[in-house]
Amino acid sequence: MASKEILNKIRNFADKAHGDQKRKYTPERYIVHPVRVMETLKNYTDDMAILAAALLHDVLEDTKTSKDDIYEFLITILDWPTVQRTIDLVIELTDVFTKEDYPQWNRRKRKAMELERVMKTGSDAQTIKYADILDNCNEIVSHDRHFANVFLHECKKLLEVMDKGNKDLHKKTKELVENRIKELMK
User: Fold this and answer.
1) What is the pLDDT of residues 119-146, one digit of tens each?
2) What is the domain extent for residue 80?
3) 63: which of 17, 114, 157, 179 fits an S-S bond (Cβ 3.0–4.6 Å)?
4) pLDDT on residue 186
5) Rounded distance, CA 120 to CA 133, Å?
6) Which residue, of 94, 113, 142, is where some domain finishes?
7) Number of separate domains in the chain
């Protein structure tokens, strides 16, 4: 099976998992975000596990789909080592300190704990996270300036400690975040 066909099947699986979810600031189906993240990453790698994880990066966090569901699907189209790497990356990219699991903590505390966790993630997960931040930053300033200020400063802190991924993408993402912060100050 060609890689384009495989990625299309993974995209469809992720789209089905996200169901009727929409992007926060637009009426677009949620899947447009993971697809843009994957398309960004295609400029830096052809590693199937990274591209697959980009498409699936929010599935565990934002849907009822389990790790086992992802495994059962991926094993039908990818070899076992690629399936395992993909799932490992998706797990690394899934927030642990969520509002649902830690309702007693405010956002600042949860994000501080996530910062500590993300700092320990591997280079491939960090590379995917750079592309995720890049895509999210492109929408937020124009749609929610107040929250953008909070979000962009959180991203800036993340990028300061996430330095193991692709250096070019890290630099591009860091510059975009800094430019968006400057836009907010105008």
Assistant:
1) 999 999 999 999 999 999 987 888 888 8
2) 1-94
3) 17
4) 79
5) 17
6) 94
7) 2
Indicate whether 29 and 102 sit together in one domain: no
pTM: 0.96
Q: How many CB atoms lie within 10 A of CB 125?
A: 24
DSSP 13-60: HHHHHHTT-B-SSSSSBTTHHHHHHHHHHHTT---HHHHHHHHHTTHH
Nearest Cα to 17, choosing from 82, 92, 85, 90? Answer: 90
Instruction: Write down which residue in 74, 94, 114 finishes a domain.
Output: 94
Contact call for residues 13 and 35 (beta carbons, < 8 A): no
Is residue 30 located within the same domain as residue 103?
A: no
Q: How many residues does the chain have?
A: 186
Query: In the structure encoding, which two tokens stand for residue 20, read together?
Result: 């009727």
- Encode 49-64: b = buried (16+ Cβ within 10 Å), e = exposed: bbbbbbbbbbbbeebe
Cα separations in angstroms, 135 against 41, 68, 71, 73, 157: 11, 28, 26, 26, 17
The tens digit of pLDDT for each residue in 85-111 reads 999 999 999 999 999 999 999 999 999
Residue 106 DSSP one-character state: -
Residue 22: what are its φ and ψ, rounded to 5°? -120, 160
- Taking CA 52 as the corner, what is the angle to CA 51 and CA 56, rounded to the nearest 5 degrees? 120
